[in-house]
Specification:
This protein is an alpha+beta fold. 44% of the residues lie in helices and 24% in strands. The protein has 25 helices and 29 strands. Strand 19 and strand 20 form a beta hairpin.
Length: 706
């Protein structure tokens, strides 16, 4: 009691101590995580010109992108699409604000009228009604908040589209081409030159005669920095450990399948006795037997020989009804098969039908007919068509809900399996002239079999299949091998290649992986591995194990390249050919002297070539290809004048102008000016947006989150 009294006396003091301790704990956590600014930065996925993009909001946009494409895009594709959408929104919104482009409610109402004026839901006596639109919006707001939010989003999108239209129209309005520019465009196409030229190709000097040093490459990329900027990248290498079934595993599976052929004793808990269980050979219900014992469901279809597994098609085709075959290996399974039935069916059938839908079907949006009424009508129509087969063509356009009604219900010739199963079974198992009614998920079909071709033997198989998978022992062995290799290369990071070689493991390199890449060659989507490789703490030589479908990857980072100017090694494939040709050009120029094309050609082992009708719009030389620099020099020469050596794209040239054909003077160049103006305006939207992007300050943290 004395202790409790002392605690009570000091309660205020204790509360203060506890409060300070809690505050210190929170503060320590803040500092440990880099302060308050870091906590904020963890919620930001990027920024554009100082405007932050919130991670949670961005995640919602990613989900919207996935939904927009029905889940048919990968997560990385959805992220990239959402990012591009955000960039465009922010960059254009900045322009709208700066220029004062806004869309007020009156204009939104006009846009709604333009978009909805042909919708009967918003018409009175065939004329758009603003009152109906207002009533519709008010009803949504009071009865369906979700749809009302969607409506508001629709209005905002209309306004956004209008803002963009106004903005780009303003830009295009500033793109004008005067008559002088029109004349220039005309003359570039119609001023012509006939020329003679000598081309000494760079290939005339062997590459090994020219030395391009690393210093040369380094100097070149420093001089052309803008052209040789590199994204951050990683080089990786990996060893794949696959959980493949061993021969022992396969033998075990094969044996288990074989045992299903014959009767066997099995313990029954209910009777506490060993009872005989029928095998596939003697079972009375093959469908239930297959579905209970197989990894693949029972296939209740007749098959032609060309539909059987190729390796065993002859053996299966030779069986009679009731015969069994197997075990045999097919497409990753061990199987046993029994011939359930043998029949004759056509390989193609021509049929006609009337499709009757009823309330509740997905393909019957406005149908008021009940299911019972649809069945009654189908039976009635079938009776009429049985009595008078030609009536199908008359009744189909009136009653059918299928597109074939435009052709009197005719579906043409089709092969087995093209229709839903009830329809397929009727037309292939029946006879020409049969009329009947079948039900499918689309409604009731009134069917007439018009023709059948090439009736032939077909068999129905009951097949028990067991997938060939690794045993638990095999899975454990693979895991142990993976772990041992991972530990060995983690301890000796420089020994990855040697350790793999000692164990007969194949090392696969993957170079130049980018931060937002999604796939690794040969392994499909492996975003987790790429994120790991780009972690800010990742070092060259680091090793990690990753679970993949059917096994494991042990991955090592072999090289890190940060964003910036390319290294000499990275730039070498692009720069070396350029510098090599520059040095070859200098060597070729030294061997060229004088103005006599024949002498120059003879001295260099080439011939004089001619090219007629050359123009600046399409600077191509016959026999040499596109050479804009060479053609440009030619247009600066007088008739009969010979150029100095010109370093072209494919070699060194000497050119002589033999004929100048000036463009015919026109009274008016307006059509050419308009043509150029329209061409410039057609590409304006994309070029303007790209210019805004290039000029923006963009911080992108997607790679660290997705």
């Amino acid at each position: 009691m004395a202790v409790l009294n002392k605690i009570r006396q000091r309660s205020v003091f204790l509360i203060a101590i506890i409060a300070l301790a809690l505050f210190a704990f929170v503060l320590a956590d803040v500092f440990q995580n880099g302060g308050f600014s870091t906590q904020k930065s963890q919620r930001i996925i990027g920024s554009v010109n100082g405007e932050d993009i919130d991670q949670q909001e961005f995640a919602s946009r990613v989900e919207a992108q996935t939904a927009r494409y029905g889940g048919n895009i990968t997560n990385t594709q959805a992220v990239n699409a959402a990012w591009e959408e955000e960039l465009r929104r922010i960059l254009l919104d900045e322009q709208f604000e700066e220029l004062g482009i806004s869309i007020e409610q009156d204009r939104i109402n006009d846009l709604l009228k333009e978009a909805l004026e042909n919708d009967p839901s918003f018409q009175t006596d065939g004329v758009f009604s603003e009152q109906k639109l207002k009533e519709y919006i008010a009803t949504l707001k009071s009865t369906n908040p979700t749809m009302y939010d969607q409506w508001v989003a629709y209005e905002k999108q209309l306004a956004k589209n209008e803002q963009q239209q106004i903005y780009f129209d303003l830009v295009k309005a500033g793109i004008n081409t005067n008559f002088k520019e029109g004349k220039m465009a005309y003359e570039m196409e119609n001023n012509l030159r006939n020329i003679e030229f000598v081309q000494v190709p760079y290939t005339s000097i062997e590459d090994d005669k020219v030395n391009v040093s690393k210093d040369d490459i380094e100097a070149y990329i420093k001089e052309h920095k803008d052209a040789y900027q590199a994204e951050a990248s990683r080089n990786l290498r990996y060893v794949l450990f696959s959980e493949d079934a061993t021969l022992t595993d396969e033998d075990t599976i094969k044996s288990s399948v074989a045992k299903l052929l014959n009767d066997r004793l099995a313990y029954t808990a209910a009777t506490k006795t060993n009872d005989t269980v029928r095998g596939l050979t003697r079972t009375a219900n093959v469908e239930d037997f297959v579905n209970e014992n197989s990894d693949l469901r029972y296939n209740d279809n007749f098959l032609f020989k060309n539909e059987l597994p190729v390796e065993v098609s002859d053996a299966l085709w030779a069986l009679n009804e009731g015969d069994v075959y197997g075990p045999y290996k097919d497409n990753g399974f061990y199987k046993i098969s029994k011939v359930v039935a043998v029949t004759q069916i056509p390989d193609s059938v021509q049929s006609s039908h009337i499709l009757l839908t009823y309330q509740g079907l997905q393909n019957a949006a406005a149908q008021t007919r009940t299911k019972a009424e649809a069945k009654e009508l189908a039976d009635s129509l079938a009776g009429v068509i049985r009595a008078t087969p030609s009536k199908m063509a008359e009744l189909a356009p009136e009653y059918s809900a299928d597109g074939s009604k435009e052709k009197g219900g005719d579906l043409g010739y089709v092969t087995k399996g093209r229709f839903v199963k009830p329809f397929n079974d009727f037309v292939f198992n029946g006879s020409t002239g049969d009329v009947g009614v079948v039900e499918s998920q689309f409604g009731y079909h009134v069917i007439k079999i018009d023709d059948q071709k090439n009736r032939q033997r077909a068999i129905k198989l009951a097949t028990v299949a067991k997938e060939i998978t690794p045993s638990q022992q095999t899975i454990n062995d693979v895991f142990n091998k993976t772990t041992k290799f991972q530990m060995a290369v983690s301890e000796n990071k420089n020994g990855f290649e040697d350790i793999a070689k000692e164990n007969n493991y194949t090392v696969r390199p993957v170079n130049n992986v980018k931060a937002l890449d999604e796939t690794i060659p040969g392994q499909g989507s492996q975003r987790e591995i790429i994120r790991w490789a780009f972690d800010e703490d990742r070092k060259t030589g680091d090793v990690n194990r990753f679970n993949v479908d059917g096994g494991y990857l042990v991955v090592q980072v072999t090289k890190k390249t940060e964003k910036g100017l390319m290294s000499v090694d990275e730039a070498s494939p692009r720069v070396t050919p350029i510098l090599r040709n520059e040095k070859k050009a200098a060597m070729i120029r030294e061997k060229i002297s004088g103005n006599d094309l024949n002498a120059i050609a003879s001295a260099n082992g080439v011939s004089v070539q001619t090219s007629t009708g050359v123009n600046l719009k399409n600077p191509t030389l016959a026999g040499a290809g596109t050479e804009p620099k060479v053609v440009g020099v030619a247009f600066g020469l007088e008739k009969g004048e010979v150029s100095k050596p010109i370093d072209g794209d494919k070699g060194v040239y000497v050119v002589k102008v033999t004929e100048i054909t000036p463009a015919r003077e026109l009274d008016n160049y307006a059509s050419f000016a308009i043509q150029k103006q329209n061409a410039d305006r057609a590409t304006a939207n994309g070029r303007v947006y790209q210019a805004l992007k290039d000029a923006a300050e963009i911080e992108d943290k997607r790679a660290s989150i997705y």
